Amino acid sequence: MIKNISNLGDAALYCDFGTEVNKQINRNVINYFNNLRDSNFLGITNITPSYNKLVISFDLKLTSFAKLKKQVENLELKKKNNSKNNLIKIPVCCAEEFALDIKRLQKLLKINEAKIYETFFSKNYYCYMTGFIAGMPFLGDMDKSLFAKRLETPRVKVPKNSIGITEQFCNIYTFESPGGWNIIGKTPVDIFDNKKNTEPNLINPGDTISFYPISKLEYEKKYE
Amino acid sequence: MKKNMNKNYFEVLRPGINSTFQDNGRNNFYHIGIPFSGAMDNRNFILANTISNNEINNPVLEFAYQGPKLKYIGKNISINVTGDVNFKIIRKNKNLELSCYENIILENNDCLDILSTNRSVYGYLSIGGTFEVDYYLNSCSTNTKAKIGANSGKKLEKGQIIHLKNIKKILPKNKIEYLNSKIENIRIIKGPHFDYFSKNAIDSFLSDEFNVTKLSDRMGIRLKGPKISNIKNTNIKSEGLVKGVIQITADGDPIIMLSDHGTIGGYPKIGVVISADYDKLVQIPSGSKIKFKEINLKDAETIFKLYEMETQNLISNIK
């Protein structure tokens, strides 16, 4: 399942699962990720799943590339552990002041606003990975009719909790951050709660997300 | 109990440019977007806690370029500063000139003024005791982007109070003879996208000088130099990063990921700085020049062992 393991510097393994982005490859990555989390191999300091790669960093004082590579190659995969992966429902308010790029998208995609939202809310989205900034989920796949390029000039500040779309993916900005995705709404739910000391992130790699629309009034109520 | 806790403290008269509490960092949260963090220069962090006879993972106050000015209230306490740092104690209107890498006694009403780091970036303040700080996900390391760790995830601010606890009896000097040597040649290992770049681009990457720009911080070092042109693709599908990874942006400029880096990235990785050179790398101030040198994995592993032995030697020669 892993096509190749090479070294990323002297203190990380770079596991290559392929070049395409699809759920099948990503499920393999996440299956390895879940199994490695339970493995207790000496010296692992971080495991980062992404679309089709898995990066495992380790403490060079405790292990080495050659040792850990052998362990990963010989890792016996337990049955796919899907119990860790959930369906999570996320409310989205699409009021004008939150849907910063809806006008641009209507022009770009040549679809009206109502149809854009209808299409967006009709699908479930799979979480390929989380990261870049704390807790940010990379979700897919969008309906082809909504594939849109990034903004030519990224925003310096995308408001926290904004929902963005680009190409086949959507995401949620867990913090105010620079970014170039097309913003179509905002959720009142904190996806990353920096006050929670265990499992601060609501969405994990492998989870399924369904978005549903709420009114401005409901948004304000949820925020209280 | 509460009264006791508040007996010994620092008042921040000047916070410095980027002063944060740090320890060894937090493991195993890259997958939810939380980087390692921790003290940038790990050796100087270890030496600071060693001189203070502290547990190796005790919190320290890290500062960059200009450090904080702190007024101390409480009973006599041993403190030390590591790095290449200019600092003094102002005691009853007299300036006491001091050295790094040894315990110094701080008295009630003393003012500790950490003026600057010399041709370097980071320095550390450790105390014979413990800074009273918040922990988050098993570490106190402050990450200002995710707003987590000590001090509610913020840099030190003017006027705030830092409470101290578990203050030890006055410690011996515990002097360590150490000179922070500067390096300009950073050793790297080829990255997974080495072949995304033309032969000319790689030659230039491995032989020309690059300037460390002002857009460098705990997240990364941005370099300017000859453009590293890409022959395949300026973007890849986003994937995991580690400390020391060198990405080449779409503009052809290298960025080196440091301890607070974003956990995933979509630029090709031309190389990775070897672990043994990381502490020296982070100390290269903006405005300096650096050069890269490619070595293989075996050599990198050997050099790391030597680097670790050197750290252990410094610790065992403590006086």
Structure, described:
The complex is a heterodimer of chains A (about 220) and B (about 325). Chain A is built from five helices and 13 strands. Chain A has about 220 residues and is of the alpha+beta class. Chain A folds into two domains: about 5-75, Gyrase A, domain 2 (2-Layer Sandwich), CATH 3.30.1360.40; about 85-225, Cyclophilin-like (Cyclophilin, Beta Barrel). In chain A, the strands form three sheets. A seven-stranded mixed beta sheet of chain A has the order 5-13-6-7-10-9-12. Chain A has a four-stranded antiparallel beta sheet with strand order 1-2-4-3, covered by helices on one side. Chain A has a two-stranded antiparallel ribbon with strand order 8-11. In chain A, a hairpin with a 6-residue loop joins strand 6 and strand 7 (about 135-140). The radius of gyration of chain A is 19 Å and the shape is elongated. The N and C termini of chain A lie far apart (about 45 Å). The relative contact order of chain A is 0.17. The model of chain A has no long low-confidence stretch (mean pLDDT about 95). The model of chain B is unreliable at about 1-5 (pLDDT under 50). By secondary structure, chain B is an alpha+beta fold. Chain B starts with a helix and ends with a helix. Chain B has five helices and 21 strands. Chain B has two domains: about 1-165, no CATH class; about 185-315, Cyclophilin-like (Cyclophilin, Beta Barrel), CATH 2.40.100. In chain B, the strands form four sheets. Chain B has a seven-stranded antiparallel beta sheet, with no helix packed on it. In chain B, strands 13-20-17-18-15-14-21 form a seven-stranded mixed β-barrel. Chain B has helices at about 1-5, 40-50, 200-205, 280, 295-315, and strands at about 10-15, 20, 60-65, 70-75, 75-80, 85-90, 95, 105, 110-115, 120-125, 130, 160-165, 185-190, 210, 220-225, 240, 245-250, 255, 265, 270-275, 290-295. In chain B, strand 14 (about 210) and strand 15 (about 220-225) form a beta hairpin. Chains A and B meet through strand 2, strand 3 and strand 4 of A and strand 16, strand 19, strand 20 and helix 5 of B.
